[in-house]
Hints:
The complex is a heterotetramer, with 2 copies of chain A (475 residues) and 2 copies of chain C (524 residues).
Chain A: H1 15-25, H2 56-67, E1 77-78, H3 91-98, H4 100-103, H5 114-131, E2 135-136, H6 143-158, E3 162-165, H7 171-181, E4 186-189, H8 199-205, E5 210-217, H9 228-237, E6 241-246, E7 264-268, E8 284-288, H10 292-295, E9 303-306, E10 315-318, H11 325-328, H12 341-378, E11 384-385, E12 394-398, H13 406-414, E13 418-419, E14 422-423, E15 428-432, H14 439-468, H15 470-474
Parallel strand pairs in A: 1-13, 3-4, 3-5, 5-6, 6-7
Antiparallel strand pairs in A: 2-8, 7-8, 9-10, 11-12, 12-15, 14-15
Chain C: H1 42-48, H2 72-84, H3 107-113, H4 116-119, H5 131-148, E1 152-154, H6 160-177, E2 186-190, H7 195-203, E3 207-211, H8 221-227, E4 232-238, H9 250-259, E5 263-267, E6 287-291, H10 292-295, E7 308-312, E8 324-328, E9 331-335, H11 352-389, E10 408-411, H12 413-419, H13 423-430, E11 449-452, H14 460-479, H15 481-485, H16 511-517
Helix pairs in contact in C: 3-11, 5-11, 6-7, 11-14
One pyridoxal-5'-phosphate binds next to helix 6 of chain C.
Domain Aminotransferase class V (chains C, D): 139-303
Enzyme class (chains C, D): oxidoreductase
Pfam family, one (chains C, D): Aminotran_5
Amino acid sequence: xxxxxxxxxxxxxxxxxxxxxxxxxxxxxxxxxxxxxxxxxxxxxxxxxxxxxxxxxxxxxxxxxxxxxxxxxxxxxxxxxxxxxxxxxxxxxxxxxxxxxxxxxxxxxxxxxxxxxxxxxxxxxxxxxxxxxxxxxxxxxxxxxxxxxxxxxxxxxxxxxxxxxxxxxxxxxxxxxxxxxxxxxxxxxxxxxxxxxxxxxxxxxxxxxxxxxxxxxxxxxxxxxxxxxxxxxxxxxxxxxxxxxxxxxxxxxxxxxxxxxxxxxxxxxxxxxxxxxxxxxxxxxxxxxxxxxxxxxxxxxxxxxxxxxxxxxxxxxxxxxxxxxxxxxxxxxxxxxxxxxxxxxxxxxxxxxxxxxxxxxxxxxxxxxxxxxxxxxxxxxxxxxxxxxxxxxxxxxxxxxxxxxxxxxxxxxxxxxxxxxxxxxxxxxxxxxxxxxxxxxxxxxxxxxxxxxxxxxxxxxxxxxxxxxxxxxxx
Amino acid sequence: xxxxxxxxxxxxxxxxxxxxxxxxxxxxxxxxxxxxxxxxxxxxxxxxxxxxxxxxxxxxxxxxxxxxxxxxxxxxxxxxxxxxxxxxxxxxxxxxxxxxxxxxxxxxxxxxxxxxxxxxxxxxxxxxxxxxxxxxxxxxxxxxxxxxxxxxxxxxxxxxxxxxxxxxxxxxxxxxxxxxxxxxxxxxxxxxxxxxxxxxxxxxxxxxxxxxxxxxxxxxxxxxxxxxxxxxxxxxxxxxxxxxxxxxxxxxxxxxxxxxxxxxxxxxxxxxxxxxxxxxxxxxxxxxxxxxxxxxxxxxxxxxxxxxxxxxxxxxxxxxxxxxxxxxxxxxxxxxxxxxxxxxxxxxxxxxxxxxxxxxxxxxxxxxxxxxxxxxxxxxxxxxxxxxxxxxxxxxxxxxxxxxxxxxxxxxxxxxxxxxxxxxxxxxxxxxxxxxxxxxxxxxxxxxxxxxxxxxxxxxxxxxxxxxxxxxxxx
Amino acid sequence: xxxxxxxxxxxxxxxxxxxxxxxxxxxxxxxxxxxxxxxxxxxxxxxxxxxxxxxxxxxxxxxxxxxxxxxxxxxxxxxxxxxxxxxxxxxxxxxxxxxxxxxxxxxxxxxxxxxxxxxxxxxxxxxxxxxxxxxxxxxxxxxxxxxxxxxxxxxxxxxxxxxxxxxxxxxxxxxxxxxxxxxxxxxxxxxxxxxxxxxxxxxxxxxxxxxxxxxxxxxxxxxxxxxxxxxxxxxxxxxxxxxxxxxxxxxxxxxxxxxxxxxxxxxxxxxxxxxxxxxxxxxxxxxxxxxxxxxxxxxxxxxxxxxxxxxxxxxxxxxxxxxxxxxxxxxxxxxxxxxxxxxxxxxxxxxxxxxxxxxxxxxxxxxxxxxxxxxxxxxxxxxxxxxxxxxxxxxxxxxxxxxxxxxxxxxxxxxxxxxxxxxxxxxxxxxxxxxxxxxxxxxxxxxxxxxxxxxxxxxxxxxxxxxxxxxxxxxxxxxxxxxxxxxxxxxxxxxxxxxxxxxxxxxxxxxxxxxxxxxxxxxx
Amino acid sequence: xxxxxxxxxxxxxxxxxxxxxxxxxxxxxxxxxxxxxxxxxxxxxxxxxxxxxxxxxxxxxxxxxxxxxxxxxxxxxxxxxxxxxxxxxxxxxxxxxxxxxxxxxxxxxxxxxxxxxxxxxxxxxxxxxxxxxxxxxxxxxxxxxxxxxxxxxxxxxxxxxxxxxxxxxxxxxxxxxxxxxxxxxxxxxxxxxxxxxxxxxxxxxxxxxxxxxxxxxxxxxxxxxxxxxxxxxxxxxxxxxxxxxxxxxxxxxxxxxxxxxxxxxxxxxxxxxxxxxxxxxxxxxxxxxxxxxxxxxxxxxxxxxxxxxxxxxxxxxxxxxxxxxxxxxxxxxxxxxxxxxxxxxxxxxxxxxxxxxxxxxxxxxxxxxxxxxxxxxxxxxxxxxxxxxxxxxxxxxxxxxxxxxxxxxxxxxxxxxxxxxxxxxxxxxxxxxxxxxxxxxxxxxxxxxxxxxxxxxxxxxxxxxxxxxxxxxxxxxxxxxxxxxxxxxxxxxxxxxxxxxxxxxxxxxxxxxxxxxxxxxxxx
Lengths: 475, 475, 524, 524
Ligand SMILES: Cc1ncc(COP(=O)(O)O)c(C=O)c1O
Ligand SMILES: Cc1ncc(COP(=O)(O)O)c(C=O)c1O
């Protein structure tokens, strides 16, 4: 490293300027600025960090070298989902969110950051069309947070504590939501039947102390709820709120929950134009009808359309800012902070590119490939689909009948470069297909599983033989 | 494919709009627009092309799949140069030339394209500082073209035909230049001595019929010319022009040719912030002093500073546009067209990032690593450096003494993942190191060559044995 | 006029791009397509039939969503134009978003993450296929542990406030594990600590006590001692506070909290001024967090994604959220949270692209570099303070005559009293010069506030330009106040009417709602 | 005012970004660094010593180059600001650069090439390591052979004019090979063929004969026949010409050239209107070229790099330039040019990133798509022509009442006569609305020219907006001519003085020269 230390990221490390600035403020050294930091709290040594790579080329080689040890899904055949999905991201989406102006902006006013306001208001609006709802938030962190907040909203609105969890939910999501609301709400499970909600069971458990019924569709295993309206009617009958957690990817073909009685619809936008990023690119949406009782409970920012001094100019601003913790600290609704705006812009661009026909085509491909994969795997002797619901993108198989375990299948197929799915319990494997999973890909998975089943059967037969003729062994 | 054919790249394939537009112009079909194309010239069938991949994801998978068959220099240890060089490209360079505004612009006026004019004028100016010259063109295609034009300029200015080629030049470049100027100029070789120009030989051949002396520095083998002033003096004494072809990468430490009498300095900017791109990213510069006799012979566009109606505003425009073929067709100087503007912007950003100290550091690393590699390889028994000149980045070794051929070395080392250099003749191998080639990389090359030499020696010894004792064989 | 060019005037003659774009829905043309989806293969269709037609009753969407129909280039053009209408940190001297630590997010880091080797990784892949990602997460956590002095660090959370939530959730779990959950119902914070501390504590079920500073603007230790009790679960404080004042008694604050059995939580979102100078653990804190997107140079993304880093003492380590990356020899694997873990805050390992960016940022700087970051941020801040305080009408309440750390909350109160021009109006007018600022969080304890934080990223020339603009606007406030009041003039849009935004009858949060509420305006 | 929003006015209220940036040299601060270079290893230094100190006499640079010294972010910021001050095709309705075929360069292609698998390939690597690149070059050449009908295609050249040079160089070599080099000293072109045909022919040593069109603007076959002789080496023509008029007698032109032993060279730089409709070889041409950066959708890069594609008949194939990619079974290899090849025009295989982009572009469209490109480009052009001709004062000289192919050279002569406002002034004023055009190549055979080529990339709404702007400016020319004459008003810079640019005493082509010539202006 050069002496003095001058770094490209820190212009005022240039010695002349540094000296000039110190002189201008009348300080002998930067030490003076730290007068308030007591001596006994001072570190007094250099941080113990690896040698830096101050030359960009050295840094690039090092980091690229580490990343080169990853083998991504583009080099594997992946059927992994369970919260993060491999969808195609149109190049224009990446181009837009890669623009310096969006990437590096933060929290400017509706003037100098007009573009950000418009892009995010359009995101709200595009999501609104997809979900058939009038109010959508500037994204929060992810679907976990969105759901936690949606339920918390229901709790605040109803003043009640009970929440009926009527679908199969991802364990991590359930864990987050439970810890998030547990001071205010009690979650009770109403076990699903054949993949989807048990309407009768819900009705039985409903009462005047129920804040919300929580439905997940698609569920943890990709099952699509098809009796939402009945559930909504039952919930509304006792003054409970219907919260639907969902993935918006299917609403080009599927009826949006808002049209079947949902009061709050929430979930994750990762499927709408975000790469997988090792699970690191999620955004949470919360959508409600244009009812101030609901809107005023939302913690996130909400951008609204506004006029300006110039007729025809499209302006923007914050709707009901007083809801937020920015305005009123703990008197605001939960809190708001840096969340997932860029991903919201991305999802907006994605929806604008897809249009109604694109979302329809996508929904259809997903339904078709899912059904195809279900048939392909379900037809293998000993492999069983776990339920008879309509599935979107994910479904579960039970491999017990083939004498296999889920993790055994995973281990075996990884050796062939296939990630066959995510184990959920000893014998259940959740398999995911998207528009990036071709028929050939599915056929390859089915063939690999078939081979595995056959090998397992042969081995079982051999074991059986062995068991059947213990004499031989002793021989 | 959908019927009707609607494509995302072609908005007016949307059937309603298409019909509306046809109606607006009063045409029954697009056929009418082709009334002037005679029936017997009409293709009358669909072009025979591969099935298209209209879905972006399918296209991306296909093209990425093809490119995945490439194994780039980041996955090999490469000592390849000879016109295209592996230098570090700072990320900011790629960011700037990736901006839609620069990437997709073309030929707007100095108003709506002010940014392009300023960026290219700054490129000219930054190159001017590096080369110590007052006039630099908006880049032409590459160093080949720049050199062809530089010599053609000299021919037009002197009205003479003879050109003395006094350095070792890349064969492809020589071929281009020769074919380019052969109607107007005759190239004569003055063979270099010990790597650099033979000053006495040049002087001998100079006369009143010589248009130009052409020096390449670094030469084909990376040798740096160190007697430029003497050559310039000799050339000028007979009214000849000194044309110096060069790579600007070294001028943070090396004296620029303009300070040693060069009249026209030309070459390639690939080393200044451009990736290798399989040899597909070159740009040619031509630099002269601020002398209208020279300037008016330049075919390229030259941007100049200008005032505007507003004091302090920096404006731009074309200098001496009447020189160009745009203005006067065949009466212009050679021709001008779409060349390498974006690469010029890149080189400008690169020089601005590097600054004087960066270019100095870079030059020093290159000289040091080159010298180190020369010693490391030159120390191997049977391997000989071809000359004693100072070398920048490239140098040649002769492998004959080790009983090897250049292509034999290449074949053998490729098997170890090393590209050891470019063969030039049976025994000569041109080796290239840059700032991306570390000491360890060089040591690895030296070790591999040492191993090869040893194996070759052992084999030779074996053969010798065989030859020495023919009796044994017969036994 | 002709060459030479005259000198530039004192202030940049800026105009932001103005494209006057309509709302995207108005750009729709029936039938246009932006991107096409891959086709269902004939073999699939033959096998499964028409999957939409055979959906259960009511499940097939009846009317398609009214998304716009646009060719690809038009979508791109629309958003590129909007992007030019946005003032990213890369474009301006972004020192006006004080507390936000707007620093240079190096472009090389964007390039490094832009590889399928990261973007196409699924979080549940075989860890053997994810060693690069796991190693980077692990290393970054270890480096942050050294930087904070804490025992363990988790990068699981997706932003600063999420990290604060994790802090309070861990504190809650800790007290519950010790059987003190029911007893400890209060959290103490200060008014110049970030509001998310108060808000997250409240969301976690706590009563919040907010302390105001002493007359000099220093955190009030006596007030703290009065507020502490066996009911206290934790103190949650920012330091340096939003004023840029470092609490010299921070150790005493922590000790006082500990003395009543409370925990001490340190909001180090913005540690930019103290990197390598002093550490959370050395002041005795039990938990702390960094905003990786502030202190560690990841871009702010128009408002996220961010990344939080939660640091904890050994005692709190079992409570850390999410899955953890663990090193075994030279291999890395993922371990689910133990029995005392608060569990997932969000999916998987947090905002992985940010973690890689932060790793690269720290590696580009090293120990010496981090210290240069801190020292330069502080130098820049004190230099800018000098320049700002030279402007008549501007002041820096509190700690008069003392230095500040990395930022200052200033006040235009004097100027306001003189001219009636508010801080908000001045900030808007500044945008006409390509600069801007935000005032501060409500409540405006400092009257007519504005908060400047220059970080290490700006040159002296840029700081001077910024100060010159504020001086110019202050001059205008006195001499031509209408110019300020009617600003902006050189911006994408003009003075905007925010009167509808608080009225449920009139607000329009989506295009859908707008069309419904203003049916005659469609096509506007 | 409050919601709803009023309708937008008829014309976009545009303002281009204006940052008023100084020249970059004025941003220098001593000691700042933009990027650091890797250090020389101690082991290297120990071995080689001080390589600069030991350079031969005079070889070590005495004064460092006066490049600016700037932090990385400031360099970035400067260029980002400049970029916003540039109107890329992605941002505007770029139909005004007629003859330039400004079409959508799909972003997916940018993404596809942005991989070290392409950018870090060295052209002399083992072909076994370059099969992807080689296969794409080969396939693209074969597809272009089908599109042109020619026997062989080479993508070796770096732009349209370079391809034209290659055409004439091949023609020259061909005649020389046949012993007719000395005899055939003339090349015939037309005034509405691109100037590079005339200029390259001249540079290759030929005398150039330029034919003017007949009264209707059609290429004059009789004039051609008069000009042809045994001295003719070739005809070099563009078709459709710059007027957008397709030469219906093109076959007769070629036949007439062949009849005197001359070759026929087809400038198909812009084949956008005839893709899949008619082909060069079918009209009998011996050589042709495409501008890949025009017809095949690669971005124009602010003026390059482009890519040329040279197509030739079997007879001319041996003369093709550069190395060739050859297929052997399912492998690809590189073959150096044979004995009759004109050799390299530039390094290696041409502008490889453009070749990959073009490959992806063609593959995204296929035969049906290419035909849709042509048909839509032509529909758009005829639609726009209708709209333009409705503007009083605008006309489309020649071929009155007939359709055009892909572009039209219009004239404002009528308007000029009426108002004194020139076409150039109108184009500049159009930039105040976010639109622009260029006039045309000199000489202005069409008086007060402007050339519009809408390509397939723009929607009807965009073409309408463009036409509306020109109509508005024409109205201004009549009603408020000063507004037009003093334009631009909403641009980055104002009316610029070009008087110094032709004066060697005063022009300033570099900062160096400027400082030398205007020593008092330094620091301006
Ligand atoms: C001190 C402090 N704490 C917490 C936060 C909240 O962080 P985030 O915006 O990431 O939620 C911020 C950011 O504004 C902050 O400055
Ligand atoms: C018909 C025609 N020929 C040749 C050219 C020259 O191409 P380039 O600009 O790539 O040199 C052009 C481009 O302007 C053109 O339109």
